[in-house]
């Protein structure tokens, strides 16, 4: 039997980072930048008003107070978006709106609140310092400076910055493209009435969501019956242009193990000393990495967490590919089988953790409301309430 770490390193070795791509901004959220972003222009691009008010020469208002207001003729009205060049004559004012270009010669903006708001001759009741309420060209970003670093993940704010700089796209590490395919003759799509012995297929939607949640792109293949020809045909029909194939089911020790039967020779089928998730497989199909997970839903999702999620995110350049791990204190006694790494579902509250539901691998209900995995070592068979146990934080 392989250890968890041995299989982790075999699976991690399959992943390849895709060549950087220039993608439109809307497709880059959450992806890693493949190069520094250098500002092609300054921000602000021109001196402009930080307030709705009046552009003035500050020295015209030195003595302006509530009791001795200063009156200035209003020569121009400058809304945001006005593009013709303007010059302010000393002894006059231009009405100006937030974001509008400051006229040449103006040295400050008086907020409308300190005036009567007039459009012909304005009465101003306060003085202003030179430079006040002006946003100076380049005070945020200087053209030519590095504003985002290679390796940084694209956030909504980074997208705002890129757009403000007039960049239509960004050079990023493209997302991994993952094909998810489930197998089992007993499986039926939700919505179709079940015959006795049939169950609803649940792994595909669950793993597709887990793949997407990890930041990758996913395609779901039609599920395959436990028939080698059907399986091969379905796989061949959907495996083009993907970076990873994930199958579920058909890899354990019974008969009708369709994945094993179809991929013997290309995929190495192994047992990993863990619970759940002992039967595993990995390899290359026509050069495309494939990881074959067991079919029990809990095994499938726990296996995805343990073997796939981290390297998948690492292949996309994610700086923290792994789930946060730490120790939490058990609220109850627990037992665990000797010789297997046990991943139990748990609920983490502060520093305490309670195991949640039985260890068996078909109990989806508990998994659905768990927020962590407890990782119990191979040589640990009993843990007492209060003992520290490593947890993977799934939140
Ligand atoms: P297998 O790994 O194919 O032997 O399947 C193990 C168990 O998981 C069996 O009870 C299957 O019916 C169940 N199972 C396998 N695939 C799925 C699936 N996609 N959705 C729900 N249950 C499944
Ligand atoms: Mg099966």
TrEMBL record:
Cofactor annotation: Mg(2+)
Keywords linked to the UniProt accession: Magnesium, Metal-binding, Molybdenum, Molybdenum cofactor biosynthesis, Transferase
GO process annotations (BP): Mo-molybdopterin cofactor biosynthetic process
Enzyme class name: transferase
Chain ranges of the MoaB/Mog domain: 179-314
Associated pathway: Cofactor biosynthesis; molybdopterin biosynthesis
EC numbers: 2.10.1.1
Superkingdom classification of source: Bacteria
GO cellular component: cytosol
Catalyzed reactions: adenylyl-molybdopterin + molybdate = Mo-molybdopterin + AMP + H(+)
Keyword Ribonucleoprotein annotated: no
InterPro entries linked: MoaB/Mog-like_dom_sf, MoaB/Mog_dom, MoeA-like, MoeA_C_domain_IV, MoeA_C_domain_IV_sf, MoeA_linker/N, MoeA_linker/N_sf
GO molecular function: metal ion binding; molybdopterin molybdotransferase activity
Similarity comment: Belongs to the MoeA family.
Biological role: Catalyzes the insertion of molybdate into adenylated molybdopterin with the concomitant release of AMP.
Protein name: Molybdopterin molybdenumtransferase
Native source species: Mycobacterium dioxanotrophicus
């Amino acid at each position: 039997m392989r250890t968890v770490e041995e299989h982790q390193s075999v699976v991690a070795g399959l992943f390849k980072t895709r060549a950087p791509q220039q993608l439109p901004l809307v497709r880059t959220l959450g992806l890693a930048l493949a190069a520094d972003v250098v500002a092609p222009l300054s921000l602000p691009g021109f001196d402009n008003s930080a307030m709705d008010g009046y552009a003035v020469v500050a020295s015209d208002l030195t003595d302006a107070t509530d009791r001795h207001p200063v009156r200035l003729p209003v020569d121009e009205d400058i809304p945001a978006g006005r593009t013709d060049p303007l010059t302010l004559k000393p002894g006059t004012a231009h009405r100006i709106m937030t974001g509008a270009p400051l006229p040449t010669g103006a040295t400050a903006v008086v907020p409308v609140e300190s005036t009567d708001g007039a459009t012909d001759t304005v009465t101003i009741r306060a003085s202003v310092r030179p430079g006040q309420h002006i946003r100076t060209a380049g005070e945020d970003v200087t053209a030519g400076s590095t504003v985002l670093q290679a390796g940084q993940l694209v956030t909504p704010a980074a997208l705002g910055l890129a757009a403000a700089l007039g960049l239509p796209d960004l050079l990023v590490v493209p997302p991994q493209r993952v094909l998810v395919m489930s197998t089992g003759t007993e499986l039926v799509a939700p919505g179709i009435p079940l015959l006795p012995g049939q169950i609803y297929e649940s792994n595909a939607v669950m793993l597709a969501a887990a793949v997407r949640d990890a930041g990758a792109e996913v395609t779901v293949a039609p599920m395959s019956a436990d028939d080698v020809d059907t399986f091969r045909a379905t796989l061949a029909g959907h495996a083009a242009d993907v970076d990873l194939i994930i199958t579920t089911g058909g890899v354990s020790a019974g008969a009708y193990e369709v994945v094993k039967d179809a991929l013997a020779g290309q995929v190495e089928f192994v047992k990993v000393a863990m619970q759940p998730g002992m039967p595993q497989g990995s390899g290359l199909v026509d050069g495309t990495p494939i990881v074959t997970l067991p079919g029990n839903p809990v095994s499938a999702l726990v296996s995805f967490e343990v073997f796939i999620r981290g390297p998948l995110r690492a292949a996309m350049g994610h700086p923290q590919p792994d789930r946060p791990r730490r120790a939490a204190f058990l609220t109850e006694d627990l037992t665990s089988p000797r010789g297997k790494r046990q991943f139990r579902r748990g609920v983490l509250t502060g520093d305490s953790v309670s195991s949640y539901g039985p260890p068996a691998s078909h109990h989806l209900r508990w998994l659905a409301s768990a927020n962590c995995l407890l990782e119990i070592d191979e040589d640990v068979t009993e843990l007492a309430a209060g003992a520290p146990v490593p947890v993977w934080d799934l939140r």
